[in-house]
User: Fold DUF2480 family protein from Flavobacterium celericrescens.
Amino acid sequence: MDEIVNKVAQSSLMVFDLEDYYPDEYVVDLDISQWLLEGFILKESEFRTQLKATDWSKYEDKYVALYCATDAILPAWAFALVSVHLAPHALKVIQGNKELAVIEWYQDVLNKLDYTDYFQKPVILKGCSKKSVPNQVYTLAIQKLIKVAKSVMFGEACSAVPLYKK
Assistant:
C-alpha cells in the first residue's frame, strides 16, 4: 500500500491568514445616544456633564467606533467632543460602525507587518475564517502581498483561486 504524502505541507506554499490578526477585544463601539435626552435631543450642558462623569478607562488601548443608534440630528462637534474624552485612553477613535474600526485596525496592522517570510514564495491568502473579517481587508492584504510574493492565491490549498503571479 502506497504511503499518503501531504504535498501541500512539503511545498514552499505560505498561508497568510487574516484571522491571526483579528482584533477580538481591541475594537469596540460606543453609542453616543446614551448621553442624549430621550436618545434624540442634545442639550449641550447636560451632554458635557455626562461626558465628564463617564469612566473612559474601559476604552484603554482600544479602537473605538463612535456612532448614534437613533436618528438624532447632531452637530459635528458632538462626536468631536466625545473624541476629546476618548483620546487619552483609546488607541484610535473612528466615527462610524464597528466594521469601519475593524478595517482601520487591519490597515494599521498590515502596514506594520514584516513580509520577508513571504518573499518570492507562493502564498495563499486564506479565505475561510471563523471570524468576520471584512471583505475590504482582503483587498488591503493583497496589495501588500503582491509586492513580495511570487504568486498569491485565495482560499484553501485544496481549492485556491489564482489572483496574482509574478
